[in-house]
Design brief:
By secondary structure, the protein is mainly α. The chain has five helices and no strands. The protein is globular, with a radius of gyration of 16 Å.
Length: 134
């Protein structure tokens, strides 16, 4: 579905002006949204649309993985890479097998990470000490 030029420009400005932690939140929100849509398409046996949405979520995971900076915290980066790799693999198999249970697992894992990032973002906004905000 095509979107309106004004909406596209607004979304572009949101991304361009967002702090790094807000960008991460946007990526997680997008991945979860794409996977929820994929779930609806999977349940309706609309496999092409299911696959498109899962692939969009996989591209988001790739972006999150590429954005990791080992110089900040190498151990955390290793853990996140393993996490993203696991979720990505589950999505591959969920898509190939049209397996709702695997898809639900991926959604649940990403929702948990989204909640953690939302909490971290809130702490940053409130000035609660953390290792690094934005």
């Amino acid at each position: 579905m095509a979107s309106l030029p004004g909406v596209d420009r607004y979304q572009q400005l949101q991304v361009e002006s967002a702090a790094p932690n807000q960008l991460v939140l946007m990526l997680y929100e997008g991945a979860v949204r794409f996977l929820r849509e994929a779930r609806e398409y999977m349940a309706a046996k609309q496999y092409e649309l299911q696959s498109q949405r899962i692939q969009r979520a996989q591209r988001v995971l790739n972006e999150l993985m590429y954005a990791l900076d080992p110089s900040v915290d190498a151990e955390l980066v290793r853990s996140l890479r393993a996490f993203y790799g696991y979720v990505h693999t589950r999505l591959v198999w969920a898509n190939v097998r049209s397996d709702l249970q695997m898809l639900d697992e991926a959604i649940s894992l990403l929702e948990e990470m989204l909640e953690a990032w939302e909490e971290a973002d809130q702490r940053c906004r409130l000035g609660t000490p953390m290792r690094r905000c934005a």
